[in-house]
Amino acid sequence: xxxxxxxxxxxxxxxxxxxxxxxxxxxxxxxxxxxxxxxxxxxxxxxxxxxxxxxxxxxxxxxxxxxxxxxxxxxxxxxxxxxxxxxxxxxxxxxxxxxxxxxxxxxxxxxxxxxxxxxxxxxxxxxxxxxxxxxxxxxxxxxxxxxxxxxxxxxxxxxxxxxxxxxxxxxxxxxxxxxxxxxxxxxxxxxxxxxxxxxxxxxxxxxxxxxxxxxxxxxxxxxxxxxxxxxxxxxxxxxxxxxxxxxxxxxxxxxxxxxxxxxxxxxxxxxxxxx
Length: 275
Ligand code: G3H
Ligand code: ZN
Description:
This protein is an alpha/beta fold.
């Protein structure tokens, strides 16, 4: 069933465990992620990023409606979240979609600019019953490059959460977006210090680059929401390529079905590692 993000994250935090959030690009991703989560018997978050909305010609409604419908039919609790939103118009477009949360990303602005934009977004979100995540200390690699080594400072994080009223904080602790190898080295000591300093749940971005054992360790150290995208794209695209290499194919279902199965297998494994 469709469940609120705040509820899933709150439960995970209370239980000292994690909840995985996977990026949805197409309907097949939503179906695959839910199939994997059902197979493992774990709750899951489906997240649609601003980049994914851009891919869908800038329109949130169609992919949101499909994703919500998949969540509603799921045998496990599934939340739907809007990820890495930089545009206020897109944030406001969640109203009426069934999406219960968003990550507002003003992390590339300076500290004062990030606080001002995030506080405004959080105020608006709370007026509309939405849960809001924000980021402090830019997690590297959104354009594919490796992390610049930026870290979230615990004292600044405490000040940022108090000044903005956000419900969760994405922290820079050594991971980097869009890694296709799992070689990221997390700063577990920093995760522990952030967890001690903050009451809000911590979010790990760029989790595709983190080895399995370190994902488990990160959750034990205090990460609650674990965002995963790229590793699913690797599974999806490898499966498509294998089908196309195997011989002449015309019907897209011939390569989309194995791709969806490959993503489901990856999700089933990761949700068990994380939650
Ligand atoms: O917000 C989404 C995640 O941070 C995904 O990162 O594609 O590197 O796993 P990733
Ligand atoms: Zn991210």
